[in-house]
Amino acid sequence: xxxxxxxxxxxxxxxxxxxxxxxxxxxxxxxEARKLASGAIMLYWRxxxxxxxxxxxxxxxxxxxxxxxxxxxxxxxxxxxxFEAAKVLSQAHDIHKKDGGHPALQAAKKxxxxxxxxxxxxxxxxxxxxxLTDYCDHLEAxxxxxxxxxxxIFALHVVEAWPKVAAMPASEVTGEQIADMMRRLHEAGKGxxxxxxxxxxxxxxxxxxxxxxxxxxxxxxKAYGVTTNPASDTEPDEGxx
Length: 241
Description:
By secondary structure, the chain is of the alpha+beta class. Helix content is 47%, strand content 12%. The protein has eight helices and four strands.
């Protein structure tokens, strides 16, 4: 950049594929601009790590953005906004330099995103409905005839009646939600079914909970991450036993 050339003029004079240094970024690095084949200008934070030059894309330069704006517009960044974004990256890099700096931070963020996606996928598999189904399958495998009665009650009075709760991760279901299922049956004059629902749900949760210490319970129950039994927080209708 010549003495009289402004940053805007420097950007306008850019040749496709070439980088131009727009100025120093505190505490580390500089802001650069590069003209892409499409004609758009991309802003980068440039820094050095272990002797190697690294560039992190900031975003597209928006020539129509207010010159003093520090936040990006819908179209991109003003030069000042580019400097501000680069500064945030630079400061984080400087603080974590001993741990690998910016690349390590990016890797950690990516790993956290992947972990979140995996956790979400696992939660979708380990719902209340699936726990109850697995419990019925377990009863059947043990030769217990009660599996048929449990399946019918779960299908009608949990999955069909409470689809949102049935789709929740089993480990997040509360005793109050189980009590609401029981109350609905009680108010419909089905007190005995209400008690049976509580008993079966309680047993399903107990199976999942016990899987953490009992080797005879299939490993799939451990994956539900159940540490408490919400059905144990409910009270049966003793008059219906």
